[in-house]
Description:
This protein has 126 residues and is an alpha+beta fold. It has a domain at 72-119. Helix content is 29%, strand content 29%. The protein contains 3 helices and 6 strands; from the N terminus they run ββααβββαβ. It has helices spanning 34-42, 49-68, 112-119; strands at residues 3-9, 22-27, 73-75, 79-86, 102-110, 123-125. α1 (34-42) crosses α2 (49-68). It starts with a strand and ends with a strand.
Amino acid sequence: MSIRYRLTQLKDNISSKPKKGYYAQVVTKGTVDTETLCQHIASSCSLTSADMGAALIALSQHIQGYLLDGYNVHLDGIGTFSLSAESRIVDKEEDIHAQSVAVKSINFRSSVQLKKAMKKAKFTRA
């Protein structure tokens, strides 16, 4: 198994002395959907594809619920999901109210195990 990459020319339209060169960019083979993932997992364990689908739906719902309740969610061997917030900039603390705070993004930090596994990746030029 290998990961395909291509070389992409560096673009710097801001600097007066733009850097020149190329960098590697991953070329994806596509996206694995939930159904395919469930079928592959089911073929390697005692759960059926339907069991896996139900488990993934429940996992998704519970991750959403815990994030909405202010928790981070850590999945062993995968990583941690967390939220970041955004609001307008104000001069005084009392000028920020809960109604003016929103979710900026959902963050994901991969686990150490997953990072280590990815260090073993082999690359092939596309």
